[in-house]
Design goal:
The protein is about 30% helix and about 20% strand. The chain is an alpha/beta fold and about 425 residues long. The protein has an 8-stranded parallel β-sheet with strand order 9-8-7-6-5-2-1-10.
């Protein structure tokens, strides 16, 4: 009898929370966000000073620059679009910033072959102090659906620290999105403080942030003991990697660890990414972010001015061989096989039987790497293709070579 009661309890618990697979289904039964979302996000470049003209220009540039063709198929509108509520409590856009309305903007973005995302918060006000969605979840979800929204980033500023409250608030919005009549992917943004990798998929998230906001820097200069301290010192690229690489088992098609936005090409621009020591990175460091975000299956949200990109920024963001690793259909996030003061080495299997590896030199000087594939669990001989050099650089059971300071070598290994 006790076993029967326990079994019924477990079944009820599963039905109440919902499996990750059930929560990630689209209306037609397919997986929602089967690969990590890609696109361009407003926040780092414009902060809350956004308007429909700039977003239309960026949408045009996503097409003309080759970003859309490379896979960046979302325009993510972050905080600052809101104009309050009307006399029926429907959320409305700022009439000065968006005089044509969000529906017209969404139609324009869709006409370019892009999807469109929007932003709200699980509290009365957003991080920047605008109208948010607490207690208006179903109404706002229906509004977003009526506008043609494809993605919602849902922040957590102004909300309680408690994990159970967070789970409740996020589930309420996820349920509302599913009832809206439109497929809207759900990005949970509570910065990893409440361990969302443990629960965010079950409550309906397709992706969830793992750390504090990324800043335009390689790493913070102050030692931190907890992920929470990153909020006050600023999370650099390396900090986010260090606080995110242990969660590979929680990721997969329809549920992704989100390492936050790409800072590639910002070069220390003033604004959100320039705060807390965000003085800019070298192109080598930007290339490392692209490599590491790709092999760790993070969503790829560019934030630079895609209307005006230099050659290096284009080379990094438009590398289709690296993007192919991020978008691989198997959806297996890389595991960090080597972790020490000098090296991080990541390995992931790919859908066609190949493997991807990334070799990061954490040190402040060029180093000679000696990588024996068997020590990574890869017991075969391989053809080694360098995804940044776009050529085969060797064959065998190991790779030896120089890796510059803060550089990440990225290879595709094909069994021979």
């Amino acid at each position: 009898m006790k076993k029967q009661i326990l079994s019924l309890f477990v079944i009820a618990l599963c039905l109440g929370n919902g499996s990750v697979e059930a929560q990630s289904k689209s209306i037609d039964g397919s997986i929602l966000s089967p690969t990590p979302p890609m696109g361009w996000m407003t926040w780092n470049y414009f902060a809350d000073n956004i308007n429909e003209k700039d977003i239309r220009e960026m949408a045009d540039a996503m097409v003309s620059s080759g970003m859309l063709a490379a896979g960046y198929d979302h325009m993510f509108i972050d905080d600052g679009w809101q104009g309050g509520r009307d006399n029926k409590n429907n959320m409305i856009p700022d009439p000065v910033k968006f005089p044509s309305g969000i529906k017209a903007l969404a139609d324009y973005v869709h006409s370019k072959g892009l999807k469109i995302g929007i932003y709200s918060d699980a509290a009365p006000l957003t991080c920047a102090g605008y109208t948010a969605s607490l207690n208006f979840e179903e109404q706002d979800a229906k509004t977003f659906a009526s506008w043609g929204i494809d993605y919602l980033k849902y922040d957590y500023c102004g909300a309680p620290d408690d994990m159970e409250i967070a789970k409740t608030r996020y589930k309420k919005m996820a349920d509302a999105l599913r009832k809206s009549g439109r497929d809207i992917a759900f990005g949970i943004c509570e910065w990893g403080d409440r361990k969302p990798w443990l629960w965010a998929g079950q409550v309906g998230g397709q992706l969830w942030r793992t750390t504090a906001d990324v800043r335009d820097k390689w790493k913070n200069t102050k030692a931190v003991k907890t992920r929470g301290e990153l909020h006050s010192v600023g999370a650099g690229i390396l900090d986010i990697v260090d606080y995110s690489h242990d969660y590979a088992s929680y990721a997969g098609p329809g549920h992704w660890n989100d390492l936050d936005m790409l800072v590639v090409g910002l070069y220390g621009k003033e604004g959100p990414s320039g705060a807390l020591g965000g003085v800019g990175c070298t192109d080598t460091e930007y290339q490392s972010q692209m490599s590491l975000w790709s092999i760790m299956n993070s969503p790829l949200a560019a934030t630079n001015d895609v209307r005006n990109m230099n050659v290096e920024t284009k080379r990094i963001l438009l590398n289709k061989e690296v993007i192919a690793i991020n978008q691989d259909a198997l959806g297996k996030q890389a595991v960090c096989k080597i972790k020490n003061d000098t090296w991080n080495v990541f390995v992931r299997p790919l859908a066609n039987g190949d493997f991807a590896i990334a070799i990061l030199n954490r040190s402040e000087a060029t180093q000679n790497a000696k990588i024996n594939f068997a020590e990574l669990g890869l017991n075969a001989s391989f053809e080694i293709r360098d995804l940044w050099e776009h050529k085969v650089v060797g064959k065998g059971k190991k790779w030896n070579g120089k890796v510059k300071s803060h550089e990440t070598k990225m290879f595709r290994l094909k069994k021979i």
